[in-house]
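Why does residue order matter? Because the sequence determines the fold. Keep that principle in mind as you read this record.
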Amino acid sequence: MIDLHYWPTPNGHKITIFLEEAGIDYAIHPVDIGKGDQFRPEFLAISPNNKMPAIVDHAPSDGGAPISVFESGAILLYLAHKTGQFGGATPRAHVEVLQWLMWQVGGLGPMLGQNHHFTRFAPERVPYAIDRYLKETHRLYGVLDRQLAGRDYVTGDAYTIADMACFPWILPEPQGQDINDFPHVAAWHARIKQRPAVVRAYERAAAVQTPA
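Structure:
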């Protein structure tokens, strides 16, 4: 059983997508970032950077004590290693997956996160920042679009954690982008959105945001 400390954000969605794809039993523990749950001592004990998601694996592969993991990229790598799935089937494929996972966690996510902040949440408009992050978002969409030309998935024919990491961050309209400018991204995004596990992951998100 995996305990998933989670809130429905792009980084949170990465992990529910993997868990649903791999068929791993997990329990969601909501971390309402709007209410400051990420600063609670019990959460900081497993995620010292006060960011979600984080997991606790109660059945690690070595049979030892539970393992906690924070940072969404590290969680994806941990789960791929644990299950032997979605991490690249050969050493060369694994390197490709690592490159694009690092691209997402080091570039796509942070830059698009700044886009979200300055265009939607900043207490005052900062034209320079808005222009900077809209342009960087456009550039990164272009990088991904070129990579996906002639490929079904980010690293080739196989669906991997690189796709799971990138997919939730592609939100063209809120990010000031026209998806028609990126036809390969559009086709890839539509393909992943229809996967049954992805549908289930987003259903879990809706349930967390609107509990019964």
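The chain has eight helices and four strands.
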